[in-house]
What we know:
GO molecular function, one term: voltage-gated chloride channel activity
Oligomer: single chain
Protein name: Chloride channel protein
Structural class: mainly alpha
InterPro entries: CBS_dom, CBS_dom_sf, Cl-channel_core, Cl_channel-K, Cl_channel_volt-gated, ClC
Number of domains: 3
Number of strands: 8
Subcellular location: Cell membrane; Membrane
Strand order of the largest sheet: 3-4-5
Keywords: Calcium, CBS domain, Cell membrane, Chloride, Chloride channel, Ion channel, Ion transport, Membrane, Metal-binding, Repeat, Transmembrane, Transmembrane helix, Transport
Largest sheet: 3 strands, mixed
Number of helices: 26
Distance between the termini: 73 Å
CATH superfamily of the largest domain: Clc chloride channel
Amino acid sequence: KEEERVLVSEHSWQPCPKARRRLRGCLEVVKQQLFRVGEDWYFLFVLGVLMATISFMMDLIVFRLSEAHRWLYREIGDYLVLKYLSWTIYPVAMAAFSTGFAQSITPHSGGSGIPELKTILSGVMLEEYLAIKNFGAKVVGLTCTQACGSTVFLGKVGPFVHLSAMAAAYLGKMRMSVMRKYEDKFKQNEMLVAAQAVGVATVFGAPISGVLFSVEVMSSHFAVRDYWRGFFAATCGAFMFRLLAVFNSEQETIAAIFKSDLKIDFPFDLPETFFYVFLGAVCGAIACAYLFCQRWLLGAVKENRLTGRLLATDKPVYSALVVLLLATITFPPGLGQLMASRLSMKELLISLFDNRTWLVLAQNASVVPAPLGDPRGLWQEWCHPSATIFGTLAFFLLMKFWMLTLATTLPLPAGYFMPIFVYGAAIGRLHGEVVALLFPDGIRAEGTAYPIVPGGYALAGAAAFSGAVTHSISTALLVCEATGHMAHVLPVVLAVLVANAIAQKCQPSFYEGTIIVKKLPYLPRIRSRHMASYRVLVEEFMERRVVAVAKGAGFEEVLAALNATTDGEYPVVESTVSPTLVGTVSRAQLVSFLQSHEHPQAPPGPLQEKPASTGTLGDDCTIEPVMLQLSPWTSLHQAHNLFELLKLQRIFVTRYGELVGTVTRTEVTMGTE
Length: 673
């Protein structure tokens, strides 16, 4: 009866069998024609459009939530206690919900995600960081974090790069099921590199600098053949992101993200180059101090008994307490009036990029303040009756230094690039206002005086400080793309180069420092470029105690090798007398070898008709050839480059063909120190 039921179900009648066959044939032909140019184009287009839509919708929701918070703060009136509660409770609730919601779904949704992506691209697979459930947790959590406003002073660049990588991984699995093709690790890495460019491009609307920034920050080695993937996906994402702003009537046409009025006939004079170089040196020095303090505080918070306990068991409580402290400090009737705390991060950048000199505007300003939100009147938020422009900018830099450092310890989805971008713009603005004060009539060149433009120094400061913190040069192009102003590109590049030279000499980058604190399995760079480091050889740091199995090994030898270590693969030598390396064998095959033998110590396995009583490893197991070997006289730099380029986990060391040791990422890391 069961067989009859199966036959009936298989031959059950379906309507229009000929039409169904023709439709399937037509769909197959269409599929072949569409994917003749390559499925990567469609994949990258979908990725760019998808992430641009998510970025725009997130910005729209955050704007609505922020406007609701502002409306509540204004409508309360002059009741100071109620104003304080409305200012603090809202970001506290948002931060606590962001932390609790994200951590309840997956504990890997906190932070920016870039340190983990750097680890993945280096060859260490962290599957949980690319899981699709992490995507939803990060989107909701990041939206709530952004809704806290400039109180928490956190951005979305890093998490959006992580979101793009997760979307690329999920789309890759969908493509596998549609195309019925296997996607290897090299293909996955190609798409992850393109996804990182999309993440930056859909936040700033800057496709070129998005690709360059993702290459600099994420990859130690980059294949030029992947360039077109990054540029195509980033261009699709950036174009869609700006197009949605036009459709939503936010802009009349496609324009830069941060509006600036720097279109002047003579942006800077040659003698000003010295001031831009000096600004780069200042940004590099402050970046070194910030990187040291941030890395120290991140470790101290975890080691402290109270904060460590909160981060282990009650993360929303820790977030609520930290955000309450930050919101109290930024309360506008209090210290917040000296920090322009009512402005959002985008408004802060627009005000800092103003091409007018604030000192001159403050001397000629009317007593009637401009309405909040007017781009031409945002500078008035930096004015205070009891302090000058220099005082408010200096106080902003002093307070935001430790506040931003403290905010990086929050266990919620957040980005850290935009805050340091704004902080660098404030450094540049203060420097530009000081130069304008020293030269009120401008710098004379060939008998003509050209005025100082503090907004140009703000551009250079934003690029130099963010570039120094992240160890990247592409921030010079990023500020030009984000503002649509290219006249200051030369002094901006000079400032970025000087800042990077100082920061890279003294401190690891922000993301590398986070990797160090989190103890992720990432291969660090060789920081020392002294000639002595090139004379360090593999034999000085390799592991000499290697558990190997002979080609003619039996049950007892294989069992001893498995009990000695938990490695995934074991080297196979010719014999114990002649340890010539002949290949490797996986641990799974060795376990199957033991299970196939009739022995009291054999592990349980599948039932066999007649277990073997004798046999050797060479006869029963598949020995894989070793494609790469190191010599004991290979230098540290050569071994390090091989591990980075080929994303290796372990290499065997042979002397004249005989196995003498092994080198893993741990030994290479110890060698770099």
